């Protein structure tokens, strides 16, 4: 197979796949440690989806009121509905403060208080004193925090002379006979050449798979590439049934209106003008966690209190904040509302609806970022040579539901952790075993199959069928019969890939082939999500079932592991949630309790 393509070989100490926030933080950590590091990314780094993150990055700095990382940890455990691993959550919340200070020293342009401290705003689910009142914990750069973060990390990576392979599409991992990762095969979209990147450590930072759904806040590049690569390598994905709907996507467009808008004092109303969140979350109100707010909005619509001619959306009010506050603290979403909703947010409310926003599940890792392949003897067995960070990974700090601003924190803390781990375990310039001659054959065979596919169904048609099935059957509320139908529909859509048609046979900027390879990854993620959801007989976090409304800790406080076979079949196993902390003398395990806001 390799004879049919031009293949170039590269050898590095570390190869990072993905140039978003987590990828760049891992790149930076590795080059700072003196490791020869390559970043392979399918889009220019500052166009990665992290650039779209708006509201903030959480850390218990206490700049604008009393705060403590213990409270942040409690909120994260509670937000995760007790499916998060508490050793990892402790690590993230404890490391949040030094990680933010580090970003400040890197030059990240945070918004400031009059005293010159980093400005912090309230955010959904973040509370003081173990849930008693809202905490000001979200550090922000107006409402363009991800943009500021991404540019800061990219500049630092260039300063330390990291090497970037931009607009290279990663096709598949290179795995040894013994099950270790040895590198990755990528396609240079600019000149059509194929590349084998060999490394002592491969770090996947490929982002989420929001484009499995018809309506989402994710960029079109969020296609679960790393999750698909891992599945084809015979490794599991974890907790993929937990998909977060952001409460405030612009109605009809799906574009994100940050939770920071409610943190600044925005509120939701129904058709009767009622601030209905006071009924569902008496303490936190509009700043309850995202799954709670999304479900509350959906209930209002289902019970006939939606807004508009079809009573099919809700209103977000910011106009009372005044133009000065909106222009200073929320300039991006004011502009977004004008463009995508035709609304002047300084004068009128914004029409909103819950929209797919984040994937809590992903590639299972420990808090160092090392990928896990659980065995009968060891639930935390590590895959040699492979790490994963960011939204493609499941550490698991987000469990069944992520708190707002914990995503950017996850990127920075665990991207940093991966760099620190590589500094400990990777020897700069160490010799690596020679790759087998057929090491790229699986990847190139897959690409070649799709490149020459002459079936009867176009990529866009199959993708539309998949996205609509996911939107309908794996939504804010779920029930058994609907999910069973969803499983059948997704299986049919997956089968249709065998009859796919690709019209463009070229290798240079072949978007038809790129979208087909991305669809293949999305389909894997969709199947795993639907089947994992159907199997989980409880309601927990973002997995809310109409027919089984209660959480069941006795049977279901465990991580789902989904394994994908060559014939597109999914099998499920489970591993226990970590019910311990890293430093039990300092912070005790937080026992499960009723989750109310």
Return the average pLDDT rounded to an integer. 96
Proportion of strand residues: 15-25%
Instruction: Give the termini distance in whole angstroms.
Output: 58 Å
Radius of gyration: 23 Å
* Largest beta-sheet details: 8 strands, mixed
What general form does the structure show?
A: globular
Low-confidence stretches: none
Determine the structural class based on helices, strands and strand pairing: alpha/beta
Please estimate the helix content.
Answer: 25-40%
Chain oligomer state: single chain
The total count of strands amounts to: 24
**How many helices?**
16
List keywords for this structure.
597 residues, alpha/beta, single chain, eight-stranded mixed beta sheet, globular, four-stranded antiparallel beta sheet, 33% helix
Helix-strand layout with pairing:
Layout: E1 7-17, H1 21-32, E2 37-41, E3 57-58, H2 69-79, H3 86-106, E4 120-128, E5 133-139, H4 145-159, E6 163-166, E7 168-175, E8 181-188, E9 194-204, H5 225-232, E10 237-238, E11 243-250, H6 260-263, E12 267-269, H7 277-280, H8 290-302, E13 314-317, H9 323-329, H10 331-341, E14 350-359, E15 363-364, E16 370-372, E17 382-388, E18 393-394, H11 406-425, H12 441-451, E19 457-458, H13 459-473, E20 477-478, H14 480-496, E21 500-501, H15 511-535, E22 544-545, H16 553-556, E23 558-564, E24 570-576
Parallel strand pairs: 1-2, 1-9, 2-6, 9-17, 15-18, 19-21, 20-22
Antiparallel strand pairs: 3-5, 4-5, 7-8, 8-9, 10-23, 11-14, 12-13, 13-14, 16-17, 23-24
